[in-house]
């Protein structure tokens, strides 16, 4: 009885870990939202903003090649501004592979928004 319950719990835990890892390493999902601002000048074109969050560069699940693909995906959206919100660099102490930070963030140099890139590093 206990062995069967333990085996079921172990399989469930393994399933949750696999789904989580798959979600963490999948290509980003683009979600679009329109935000109306009362003070926006009438007739002015909308501002296109791309937001990247929790990209955790330098860790094993964000190699520079993957970040290059994400940067290309963002550039294809032709944003006016790119915001990078928190958790830019991985804080994993133990990992199967860590990339040097300068190598890991290098693809971000290829972002091409008209108004620039603003990043909050996170803690």
TrEMBL record:
Record protein name field: Metallophosphoesterase
Residue span(s) of domain Calcineurin-like phosphoesterase: 47-113
GO molecular function: hydrolase activity
Signal peptide: none
Pfam families, sorted: Metallophos (PF00149)
Transmembrane segments annotated in the record for this chain: none
């Amino acid at each position: 009885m206990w062995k069967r319950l333990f085996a079921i719990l172990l399989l469930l835990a393994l399933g949750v870990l696999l789904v989580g890892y798959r979600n963490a390493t999948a290509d980003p999902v683009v979600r679009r939202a329109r935000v109306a601002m009362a003070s926006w000048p009438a007739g002015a074109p909308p501002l296109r903003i791309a937001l990247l969050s929790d990209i955790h560069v330098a860790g094993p699940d964000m190699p520079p090649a993957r970040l290059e693909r994400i940067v290309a995906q963002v550039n294809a959206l032709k944003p006016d501004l790119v915001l990078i919100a928190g958790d830019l660099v991985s804080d994993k102490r133990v990992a199967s592979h860590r990339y040097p930070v300068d190598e890991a963030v290098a693809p971000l140099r290829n972002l091409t928004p008209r108004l620039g890139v603003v990043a909050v590093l996170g803690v």
